[in-house]
Amino acid sequence: MAMSDWTIICRSMTSRRFSTVTTIITVAVAVGLMLTLLSMRDSGRKAFERGTGNMHLLISNDSSPLVSVLNGIFYANAPARPIPWSTFNQLVSTFPHEYAIPTQQGDSYLGLPVMATSTEFFSKFSPDANYDPSKPKEKQAGSPWRLAAGRFFERPFEVVLGAKAAEESGAEVGDVIELSHGMKTRRNQDSPAEHHTHSDFPYTVVGILELTGSSHDRAVFTDLNSTWIIHAHERRHRDDPTSPSTTQADLTDADRKITGIYLRLPTREGSNISPLLPTVAAKLRADPSITVAQPTKEIKSLFEIVSSIDQILLAMASAVMVSSGIAIMLALYNSMEQRRRQIAVLRVLGCSKPRIFGLIVTESAIIGLIGAFAGFGLAFVGSRVVAVAMKHRLGLVIDPTFDPKATAGVLLASLVLASAAGVVPALMAYRTPVAKNLRPIG
After folding, report:
1. Where among 232, 258, 293 does a domain terminate?
2. Whether 336 and 193 share a structural domain
3. How do beta strands 158-161 and 203-209 pair?
4. Which of 165, 172, 383, 395 could form a disulfide with 161, with the two C-beta atoms 3.0–4.6 Å apart?
5. Are the C-beta atoms of residues 69 and 58 closer than 8 Å to each other?
6. Backbone phi, then psi, for 407, in 5-degree steps?
7. How confident is the model at residue 189 (pLDDT cuts 50, 70, 90)?
8. Overall pTM surpassing 0.85 (yes/no)
9. Do 224 and 108 share a structural domain?
10. What is the pLDDT of residues 193-208, one digit of tens each?
11. Are 222 and 105 in contact (CB under 8 A)?
12. Are residues 272 and 401 in the same domain?
């Protein structure tokens, strides 16, 4: 009997092939949209959290902590105001820390952001939040930076390229490049004055980093002295066009400026959390001349800000899923007029009303189930297309993952909706009068 029922359902679906296929596609699009949104929301959050790495605090002179994180970690824009070197020395001498890494942004290379920093950036800071610089490398749960080629910079006018920066620029170890003043943004991208090249000071590419999956893959790294020298040279040249080339010995305190400080406080063994964080953060925030950001907290706040948009998108996807259920109902409902005679014949052959009802609901459920699995395949492909686009446009490596519970919930919801959509057509079939529909046609 089960085989007979299956044969009846298959013939019913294949006899209305166009209607069946279009209904399945409708369900697949709805399920695919819902699963893609859920996957990219969770994966995107993880990608942003990965960029903050193992630092505890980011100190800058930006307008707000969120702006500080977007500029200092995700290279959205060059930080607007610098921090004097004397302030850096004063800050790091007032409390214990595992590292306090100065950074300076403002230059670019072929539109890619340049991060000037110290060698501690590679030895102590890591884009992997699990990396603890106080432990030996062989005992680390995470990993520091790794080189795909060459070495880290050791002296002025050497640069190390992030994996994405090397891919976009085509530069290789040993190449000589020239950096430009200013970071290209939508606001200043058409202004040549903000992008003049530091042609007097060529840089040598000495290393290329492996992919980290963070925003730092788009950056070009060099040492602070290089940046201070080229900007000091511009200052001296404006004052005296005949002045000789600038060296490190010509730097003044006014030339030594930074735009950010990556700070990690002492932690307990086996923990990535510092008991000093609340105290130190409160003390630093008491200084009105600086902005103190806790990157992980700011990323969480950012996603809370956009959570309403998430809810709107998920509500739209839910509406599309409900619409797909309605599409199944309409497709089966419209087919009832052509199937009344078939149903009457089945009744004469011994098929009971409950069995007829079950056949229609089962057919509806099968359409929903096929559409749900097709939607999962669509989401699998679609999320990876979005991930590739995010990688090329933002440099963020997003690894789309599907939460088993959420995925099962969406698939089950699709099956329930499809089954419910078959109830109305099934009631029509249940009530089909046999005698009336067996009359000769014409």
Report:
1. 293
2. no
3. parallel
4. 165
5. yes
6. -65, -45
7. very low
8. no
9. yes
10. 455 777 778 999 999 9
11. no
12. no
